Amino acid sequence: MFTGIDEVDWASLRHAHGSAEDMPGWLRALASADTAERATALDGMYGALHQQGCVYDSTLACVPFLLSLVAREEVPDRGGIVELLVGIGAESADGDPRAREAVCAGAEVFVRLAGDPDPAVRRVTASALVHFLPAPDRVLELLRQRLRAERDDRVLFALPEALTLFVRRYPAHADAAVDLLAEQSAPPYAPGLRLAALGQLALVAPARLPADLVPTAVRLLRQRSAHRARSTEPCAADSLVGRIRRLRPSDGEGSRLLRTLHTALGDRVDDRIALLGGQLTGPNPVDRCHGVWMAAALLHGWRADHGGTVRLLGAQLGAGHDWLRDAAVAVLAELFELAAPAADDLHALVYARPDLWTYRGERGSCTLGGPLKALARSGDPRAVPALAHLLAGPAAPVDLGFALAHLGAAAVPLAPAVRHRLGLMPPSSPTTARLAAPLLAAVGALGDEEAVPQVLRLLSGARGGPGAREDSVTGRVIETLEVLGATARAVPALRALLGTRHAAAAAGALWSAQQDASVVLPVLLRELTQGDPAGRRLAAVQLGRLGPAGRTAVPALRRMARSHLARERVPAACALWRIDADPEPVLPVFREAWAQDPRTRRPIARCLTAMGPAAAPLRHLAAEELAAPRRHLAHVPGSRGRDIPEDVGLLDDCREVLATV
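Above: the chain sequence. Below: its structure as tokens.
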């Protein structure tokens, strides 16, 4: 296995982390009898030899030894080494063909491994055949033979995936591979393999899918689950493993089969909703739990009438399995108002299980429990009594105020209690920022003008310059004062903030209070040209509020409107319109930013509404958005959590554009 390994000058070679002199030790460790030693070596080689698709000279030097290792049946865990070779031999990030050529040179070993006694080796070898064996006819015949001979489910499920890879790699030979997939998707093959084949067929040849795809898939899922239930040996009553399995059983392969089918169906949202209906109403709670998480992916990614799916999510709350209930609650809590069809089930759970009203984290902080949070976020007033009880207690959940903000007028009776808690917070405490933010959100949402003295206390404690506490709470305090129309009562404190990093927010609030451009304009110009990115964006927004009084800022705003960042161009363009009322420099910015950065669409839509008929050339953007099936933040990293309410808000904004422009 290691003939010639000491003849390689490893110290002169490099890998992702530097010198490759550690490679001989790792290679030898892959053949060790010690499981931990093998795992450590494999992890190290994954990170060093082919990190982010790069090819190193040590990568090429290792390939012959890796091929030699996988050829020896006495070497344990060879499946992981085959996977490493597949990763190395895949197309490199920089187009370097050397690693692929090195693996292809030893591809005959994969022909032998296709019938290896170890199913883990056979499973990963299926894709290796497609990747590296040069003759497509031979590859297809090997896969066909394996399908006839294979009995291990894990390998059988990998073979349709290999056929899909074959179709994409050899399109001229695709018909025969598709015929094989279609054959596997029909009787007499087992339900699991048929499901796997249907998912792959949907990816590469949707025209070959059966007309009754969804009922067929649901039937196969249930047949597979019933077969698994019969074939699973019962665990001993006193077995720890058995207890864990009963508490939270899992079926990763089943989840993967259905997830592949959902992915392949893509924008066939009606079919996916129907498929979820079958998953969420099946007799197997594990299948239903997988359906819950797949419903989350659909709800966060696609616009549709999801009422039926949400009601089925609500039905899982009383299913008698804590892990299934918790999964459904977690999904419902992220739906906000779209969770309304499940409100009855949430309400029943909330008042049947007061112990779930709060959750205490690892650090001891008390937060709102998932069921009550989901009920409140849906806007259901039946959440109010439970929230009132918690608010009156000695240790109300720290995030309770955020939930109140979704309840509108129904939560107004709780305003005095919120005001009281806000008044108890010491302005100078390091914990105030974390505790005050939710309460300030509630005060603003409830429009509680009687809370202004308590809000002002927090602002007066934040005048000491750019400190950590000021950074985290002052902006929200200023925002709350603006919402309450109480900025005139805070003028001295706001003036004291004009030299801090909250200068733009303070200047905007001063404009609301006094309409004195001579005070706020110099501050906003300074922030526009010298502030950090967030400060520049906010300064542009505030300058737009000045209208014609901000004309001095037009040259700087025009420069900002040419920024390479859409999130800077858009507030600058909005401000230019509000100052100059000239659509010519504004509309091209909006058109480009709308396509470039979906996060800019809501402020653009609001500005288009304000522009009225002058925005007519971009009216089509709103119309196209309303017709689009995807949520606008579906592919934006880090947007999960607020993506659904933001998307619902954008659709409302677009309807207003069409009604106004």
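The chain has 36 helices and four strands.
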